[in-house]
Design brief:
Elements lengths: L4 H7 L24 E11 L2 E2 L11 H17 L6 E10 L1 E4 L6 E4 L4 E2 L2 E10 L2 H16 L5 E11 L5
Antiparallel strand pairs: 1-7, 1-8, 2-6, 3-7, 4-5
Helix pairs in contact: 2-3
C-alpha cells in the first residue's frame, strides 16, 4: 500500500490511469515490455540395468544420459533467441526418485553401477510474446519426442505470470 500511495493519490478523479514500472530506478525511463515466466518440468524414464550393459541396443543409455541430451539440445536450439531464457533449476535422477509434493525439490538414490531409470528436471522459461513461448514449447516437445532407444521423455508446462509485449 505504501508503494502505491502516490499512484492512488494521483489517480483520484481520473478516467484512466497507466502506471509504468521504472526497471532501472530512473523515473525518466519506463518499462514498456516485460518477459513472462512459466514453469516446465521434464520427466524421463528408461530401462534400468547394470552399468556394464549401458549403450547396448537392447538397453539404451539410461534416464540421466537422455535427460542430458534433451537439455543440451533445447539449450542449443533456444540459446541466442532475443529475450528468451531457458533454465533448469534442479534435476534429480537415479534408481529411486521422489519429488516433494510442491514440486520444488526431491531426492534420488541409486548405485554408481546401475543405469538410472528415472530423471526429473524443473525449470523456468521466460519469453516476451505469446508467439515466442509457443515456439519455444514446440521446440522442447519436439526434442523430447525424439527420445533415445528404450527411453521416454515428456515435458509439462505451467503458467507463471504473463508477458507484456512491447
Amino acid at each position: 500500500s505504501l508503494a502505491r500511495a502516490d499512484l492512488v493519490q494521483a489517480a483520484r478523479g481520473a478516467a484512466a490511469v497507466i502506471g509504468f514500472e521504472d526497471g532501472d530506478g530512473d523515473v525518466r525511463r519506463a518499462v514498456i515490455a516485460r518477459r513472462g515466466s512459466s514453469g516446465w518440468s521434464l520427466a524421463v524414464r528408461a530401462t534400468p540395468a547394470h552399468s556394464s550393459q549401458i549403450f547396448r541396443d537392447d538397453i539404451g543409455h539410461g534416464a540421466i544420459f537422455e535427460t542430458a541430451r534433451i537439455l543440451q539440445q533445447v539449450r542449443d536450439s533456444l540459446a541466442g533467441e532475443p529475450y528468451l531464457t531457458f533454465n533448469p533449476g534442479f534435476v534429480v535422477g537415479g534408481s529411486d526418485v521422489a519429488l516433494d509434493a510442491a514440486g520444488g525439490g526431491g531426492s534420488a538414490h541409486g548405485k554408481s553401477n546401475v543405469i538410472a531409470d528415472t530423471a526429473y528436471v524443473a525449470g523456468d522459461l521466460r519469453t516476451l510474446t505469446r508467439e515466442q513461448i509457443a515456439r519455444a514449447r514446440a521446440v522442447m516437445e519436439r526434442i523430447a519426442a525424439r527420445h533415445g532407444a528404450h527411453a521416454h521423455a515428456r515435458f509439462e508446462f505451467d503458467e507463471g505470470y504473463p508477458m507484456l509485449a512491447p
